[in-house]
Amino acid sequence: MSPVRTHRASQFNRGTVPVTAQRNGDFSDTRDGRGAAIPLFDPATTRANPAGSGFIRDRLPNSIVPRSRIDPLAIRVLEFMPRPNAIPDDAFTNSNNFLSLVSSPTDQGVTNLRFDHVLSSKDNLTFRYTGTRNTFNDRGFGLGPADPLARIDQRDNHNWLAGYTRIASPSVLNEFRGGATRQFLDIRPSSRQTSSPSLPSPECLAFPAPDSREDSARNTRSSLPTPCPSRGASTN
Q1: How many other CB atoms are found less than 10 A from the CB of residue 121?
Q2: What's 85's DSSP letter?
Q3: What letters, b where the CB count within 10 A reaches 16 and e where it falls short, cover 27-66?
Q4: What is the spatial distance between Cα 196 and Cα 146, in angstroms, rounded to a whole number?
Q5: Radius of gyration over alpha carbons of the chain, in Å?
Q6: What's the CA gap between 114 and 158, in Å, rounded?
Q7: CA 236, CA 233: separation in Å to the nearest integer?
Q8: Cα separations (Å) of 198 from 148, 152, 223?
Q9: How many CA atoms lie within 13 A of 89 on its CB side?
Q10: How far apart are the C-alpha atoms of 96 and 87, rounded to whole Å?
Q11: How many C-beta neighbours within 10 Å does residue 80 have?
Q12: Within a 13 Å sphere around the CA of 20, how many CA atoms are in the beta-carbon half?
């Protein structure tokens, strides 16, 4: 039987997160890869195109979304999104402006057992068990339970073997063996395996109730329940 061994590996993860202006609803400086401004259109002005097929919308003034029109749920979820902490690859699009380096541990263990029993000079029994355990804790960007990439992989393998040997005569030997193998593989987001108080529940974030049978009072996002934990801005 071998002890559980822990291995740690780190890798750079890069991603794109909203800059301060975008977090506040200001997309006036949001540009494509050529540097051209990307206009925003007001969905509330959607109407049939009087000049032909399809629909048209009016542009939002200066491509700024008024604070009063930002969904309270979006504001709450934004608290769990980190701020830029790296020079972007593209100054126009701000792509890959967030960088993290975290370790992701892997715990491994192996168990080997064997049992041999001599029933008589002609009869023998054998039993063997081998089990392996492998837990990989991928910490993603290192943002905790709210990390979109973080996951925990659990892989357990079990193998059993039983055998019976019978010496029938000096020239005849009978051997019977049977075995079984089972693998358990469970992959879950880290948020499913933690009770961290920093991770809000859907109700805390004011998500609509998942059960459609709930009354309409619970299926609303007009107000935010309290208290609700706040992660705040993260740069790591």
Answers
A1: 7
A2: -
A3: bbebbeeeeeeeebeeeeeeeeeeeeeeeeeeebeebebe
A4: 10
A5: 30
A6: 14
A7: 9
A8: 15, 18, 20
A9: 10
A10: 8
A11: 22
A12: 2
Series of mean pLDDT values for 10-residue runs along the chain (236 residues): 65 88 94 93 93 92 92 84 92 92 86 93 94 88 77 92 94 94 86 52 57 45 44 43
150, 144 Cβ separation under 8 angstroms = yes
Query: Number of helices (H) and strands (E), helices first, in the chain?
Result: 2, 7
Contact 1, 131 (CB under 8 A): no
Q: What does the alpha-carbon distance between residue 43 and residue 29 come to, in Å, rounded to a whole number?
A: 20
Tokens of 217: 């009072």
- CA distances (Å), origin 101, targets 68, 106, 196, 232: 37, 16, 22, 20
Structure tokens, 36? 């051209």
> What pLDDT score does 207 carry?
61
Q: What are phi and psi of 62, to 5 degrees?
A: 60, 15
Q: d(Cα 149, Cα 12) in Å, to the nearest integer? A: 13
Strands 47-48 and 55-56: antiparallel
Residue type, 84: P
**What would the two tokens of residue 222 be?**
């007009």
Amino acid identity of 128? R
CA distance 166 to 175: 6
The pair of structure tokens assigned to 87 is 């020079």
Residue 107 is predicted with a pLDDT of 87
